[in-house]
């Protein structure tokens, strides 16, 4: 929830129904879920009957918060707590958000899978070790062989669903150590960049 702290004040603008009316709130929700789920029906922000600068600030925060809820797979209780307790939204507005959120959640997940360069997302790793004791071409072994299987998810636009596939490769002990080192280095670099941003 630490990441969502920066949007708390902007989302809290919706607790005052004089600033963001029920009509504007509903249009902002419709727009948010239409944009994130890549639907066609979108209201222009100029059609909202509230103050345009405040509505735009709320709408931008709503887009960001909704995306984070989906990316981090927040449960209903966490979303309710954030919107009602932290941001002070009324229970009717929270219920309106939750209804639309769960109605469009799968579509938003599918849209988020396509962000970036469309590389598959690794969801699982399976592995086994093979050791060649002796063969007709080799008298001494070079150590174990690692057979790695990466299970991936990728969005399939034809069927509009997640498609699971596998990436299989074989490597030696040294090559596996190099891979693990590079992955740890990548994680360290990403953590450094993230800490600078936040």
From TrEMBL:
InterPro entries recorded: COMM, COMMD3
Boundaries of every COMM domain copy: 121-194
GO BP of this protein: sodium ion transport
Signal peptide per UniProt: none
PANTHER family in UniProt: COMM DOMAIN-CONTAINING PROTEIN 3
Protein family: Belongs to the COMM domain-containing protein 3 family.
Full protein name: COMM domain-containing protein 3
Species of provenance: Phaedon cochleariae (Mustard beetle)
